[in-house]
Specification:
347 residues, alpha/beta, 3-stranded mixed β-sheet, binds nicotinamide-adenine-dinucleotide, binds uridine-5'-diphosphate
């Protein structure tokens, strides 16, 4: 790993936020696919250890630059010192609840950070971008499954930042149609690399279901609060489209390949196309871990919707991508990561 900014002539992919949960798994798949990558991350929600392990898993090296996407000078020097062909942009803040209490930090990091990145890309004439969007841009959908042409809306600053960035990217493409942009709308990424070496490592008490369940199963947390048991779903608990992070990462590799062949701006759902309830996920986790996951019912969490799952056919037809892993892989890989690394990268 090096932060050497000297002139390098091999065409590379810049991965912002590449030390994070989805970014680190995507780095593995990009390296396995023969790409050269530079990771730019300020480590605000990650550890450099993830990148060491990415290199250990793949037996390949990557370049790491510790820095912020809002740092104009750093970005300009990155683009002028390296032959960067494209950018995969993961960097950003992602906690919905926190975004409600700190909206300015979210708009600054996510929206302003993306503007600084786009300006540097434009100046360097690098016009291929894969952006981490989210199924949250569909708001509360009128019907299921959700297709890419469904109306978009946002109910909190995090979701609004994703929607704003999507709209900025649409405007950018209208202004110059040589841009090649993928808006990847993730459903619920879970699981970990099957090696057990990289996974999700939340800083505090997890907000998301899967890391919370994993920490209950290992005894770090007492019990899960199931938010709502009166939704109009088959068992009353919320239904989501959980997707294995390795499948999700492979979707980025397919999107980069597609953009190399096709101009334009495209939205693609990255989901499995099936919904599982909270209680089904708890049962699957108990089965995989052979550990009890005690839970109690609690009131609905503000802003949550009853059910959400993708129609993933557009990604299949246009990217040749579909999720291959099932819930059993998701929970067993999650449990392996949690049990081998009870304190994440600080274990
Ligand atoms: P993560 O927090 O693990 O990764 C984000 C990375 O970006 C971290 O390593 C963090 O240190 C870095 N970062 C944040 N702000 C930065 C900045 N200003 N400059 C440089 N680096 C910065 O999150 P993740 O789960 O891997 O998510 C990656 C992307 O996918 C995010 O944009 C997120 O909004 C989006 N997304 C995530 C989910 C999910 O459930 N995990 C769902 C939909 C969309
Ligand atoms: N959930 C829950 N308890 C928790 C965390 C989440 O019951 O501690 C539920 C949540 O209400 C939703 C599902 O699990 O129905 C997935 O929530 P998560 O926060 O993981 O993802 P979201 O779909 O909200 O992005």
């Amino acid at each position: 790993m090096s932060s050497n900014l000297s002139k390098n002539t091999t065409k590379k992919i810049l991965v912002t936020g590449g030390a994070g949960y989805i970014g680190s798994h995507t780095c593995v798949e990009l390296l396995n696919d023969g790409h050269e990558i530079i990771v730019l991350d300020n480590l605000s929600n990650s550890s450099e250890e993830s990148l060491k392990r990415v290199q250990e898993i793949t037996g390949k090296t990557l370049e790491f630059v510790k820095g912020d996407i809002r740092d104009h000078k750093l970005l300009n020097s990155l683009f002028s010192n390296h032959e960067i062909a494209s950018v995969i942009h993961f960097a950003g803040l992602k906690a919905v609840g926190e975004s409600v209490s700190m909206p300015l930090a979210y708009y600054d990091n996510n929206v302003n950070g993306t503007l600084v990145l786009l300006e540097a890309m434009k100046q360097a004439n690098v016009k291929t971008l894969v952006f981490s969007s989210s199924a949250t841009v569909y708001g509360d959908p009128a019907s299921l499954p959700i297709s890419e042409d469904f109306p978009t809306s946002a109910t909190n600053p995090y979701g609004r930042s994703k929607l704003m960035i999507e709209e900025i990217l649409q405007d950018l493409h209208v202004s110059d149609n040589s841009w090649r942009i993928a808006l990847l709308r993730y459903f619920n990424p879970v699981g970990a690399h099957p090696s057990g070496r990289i996974g999700e490592d939340p800083n505090d008490i997890p907000n998301n279901l899967m890391p919370y369940i994993a920490q209950v199963a290992i005894g770090k947390l007492d019990k899960l609060s199931v938010f709502g048991n009166d939704y109009p779903t088959h068992d009353g608990t919320g239904v989501r489209d959980y997707i294995h992070v390795v499948d999700l990462s492979l979707g980025h590799v397919r999107a980069i390949e597609k953009l190399q062949k096709t101009a334009g701006i495209h939205a693609w759902n990255l989901g499995v196309g099936k919904g599982y309830s909270v209680l089904e996920m708890v049962a699957a986790f108990e089965q995989a871990s052979q550990q009890p996951v005690p839970y109690q019912f609690a009131p609905r969490r503000s802003g949550d919707i009853a059910a959400c799952y993708a129609n993933p056919e557009k990604a299949l037809n246009e990217l040749g991508w579909k999720a291959e892993k099932g819930v059993d892989d998701m929970v067993s890989d999650s449990w392996r990561w949690q049990s081998v690394n009870p304190n994440g990268y600080h274990s």
